Amino acid sequence: MSPRSLPFTVRRDPVPWARQRPTWRDAHPSVVAQALKRAQARPTGNWYVVGASRDLRGDRPLARTVAGEDVVVWRGPDGRAVGGPGICPHLGAPLRDSPVHCGTLVCHWHGLALDGAPRAGWQPLPVHDDGVLVWVRLDAAGGEPPLEKPVVPRRPDPERSLTAVFTGTGRCEPQDVVANRLDPWHGAWYHPYAFVDLTVVDVPGAGGDGDDGDAVTVDVSFRLTGRLVVPVRAVFTAPGPRTVVMRITRGEGEGSVVETHATPLGEDERGTPRTVVVEAVLATSGRRGFAAARRAAPLLRPLMRATAGRLWRDDLAYAERRWELRSTGRFPG
Ligand code: FES
Ligand SMILES: [Fe+2]
User: pLDDT digit string (tens) for 192-246?
Assistant: First the structure.
């Protein structure tokens, strides 16, 4: 492999963290606020991400509280994803704790069997499995005109990509998660272990090469270790009020996508909203070695999740801080 074809470069003369260029003057609160406002106006058709397709296992349901409603999803007798309320219609058993036998969810209190069709007062909900993520449609919670299918972002060919899904929960609303993602200027300051040399090259309204005219484009280097970095161009868009997509448009991993979905869980006993972040990393590469990477997928997945996990611990702290200040009238933006 010639040095030119290596995916990483050695960063010469690294700038110490405190001496990098401040980004706060560029990161106008109004730019983030306006991008968030436009995202919130986009339709969702009342679809919410509940988790990873991979977590739809044969023996128990995937359970989640979404916008205050208990929901269970599992694979029905024909293998399709089915789901509905997580409260047994008989005497209220938590169906999240009930086992699945041959595609039938069997209530563990008195044996009511659900195969995904209406039964004994239990009504299924529309469920969509896009191959990476599982969605459920909650029309009462969403309050929008329903769409038959969720708005799934354009993704790389699954045959040529490596997928990992990370899930984390924070005390905030979905908009706080989206606002964090729409502020790319914090990257090299707040996550110096992951990003260096971050330059925002295009923001909404600047007429650049963003893929939908409402994108934030960033040149940044991912830090592998120490001075080994991978320079890329990344474009951020918010196709809906609860989704931010980062697409690598130049450099190693071109075509790779990170989809961040924020699903409201509901409020805790103290009235604080809780939100789950479900982030799908769909990594692709034209490199020959990538086929080998795909074969190693079961090994790489925990590693990819761990990286996302570190970033999200910090980004959830950012989102939670935003919520804390907003809810007490102290947010400066
Ligand atoms: S509570 Fe589920 S069958 Fe009785
Ligand atoms: Fe971040």
Answer: 988 888 999 988 765 444 445 578 999 988 887 777 788 889 999 999 999 999 9
Does the beta carbon of 91 lie inside 6 Å of ligand 1? yes
Residues 233 and 314 in one domain: yes
Dist. CA 218–CA 303, nearest whole Å:
24
Helix 29-40 vs helix 174-181: crossing angle, to nearest 10: 130
Please report which helix (H) or strand (E) contains residue 83, including its range: strand 81-85
Q: Please give the distance, rounded to the nearest whole angstrom, from the Cα atom of residue 330 to the centre of ligand 2.
A: 22
Query: Could you read off the pLDDT of 272-304 as tens digits, one per residue?
Result: 999 999 999 888 877 766 676 676 666 666 666
User: What range does the domain containing 39 cover?
Assistant: 16-43+159-327
**Ligand 1 atom nearest to CA at 108:** 2
Domain end (from 107, 142, 177): 142
Nearest CA to ligand 1 atom 3: 110
Does residue 8 fall inside a structural domain? Answer: no
d(CA 115, CA 83): 9
Q: What is the value of pTM for the model shown?
A: 0.91
* 194: nearest Cα among 155, 143, 246: 246
Structure tokens at 17: 């963290």
Considering the domain architecture, whether residues 83 and 55 belong to the same structural domain is answered as yes
| Ligand 1 binding pocket includes 63 (Cβ within 6 Å) | no
Structural domain includes residue 3: no
Q: Is residue 110 lining ligand 1, measured as CB closer than 6 Å?
A: yes
Whether the CB of 32 sits within 6 Å of ligand 1 = no
Structure tokens at 141: 């919670």
Are 204 and 245 contained in the same domain? Answer: yes
Does any ligand 1 atom lie closer than 6 A to the CB of residue 190?
Answer: no
What CATH number did the domain enclosing 130 receive? 2.102.10.10
318: nearest Cα among 166, 190, 194, 185: 190
**Could you count the other beta carbons within 10 Å of the beta carbon of residue 79?**
11
